[in-house]
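Consider this:
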Amino acid sequence: MKRVSGLLVAVALQCAFTRTSYASNPIDTSDEERSIIGGRDAPISSYPFALMLLVDGRLVCTASVIGEFYALTAAHCLDSKVITSPKSQISFLGGSSDRSSIGTIFTASYYVLHEKYNSCTIDNDVAVVGVTTSFFTNSAIKPIPLQDDEPAASTSCYAVGWGYLTIPPNYIPAQMLQVANYTLQTTQNSFRSHQQLRNATSSMDCAAISSAQYVLE
């Protein structure tokens, strides 16, 4: 698998803790079953951009379709701790809510980590992956709308992905795609809870659900 160095030109909000994809203007999911931490089961038809990122056939992260041949994910999903061999096979499974069901497999041709990604602080935790076949060969897959402006504090957003149903140390992975609604917090509020956050930096945004806070890129 080819890794390309350089500055990413497309950036979207990603969550380092739950490994999920974020967007503003939450979809009403009040009738869906609650299961993930602060979340609930979600149909892929409501979030057609969501992809499972596979490394050697193993689900490691969630990604978002941002173009016909491009997906966005977290850089920590593709750093040297995950990609331990140049022969590692990176692919995506799209068009399915269930991690065990049949969807469409897309093979990655290269990936680019943000040039300022820091694996220690998880700063600039974003990567773009190119695929060999158009995502749109599956009509159920659509790109996520990208924002032109930085979301303001108190903005409502949502997270989707196949994250964990429980907090550490008892990790239980979600079988079905999950969605959760969050509210972005100010940097000041984020640092107020710094000890509860992992390596929070001034370049990170923070989102809250109930009394819990998570660091977001």
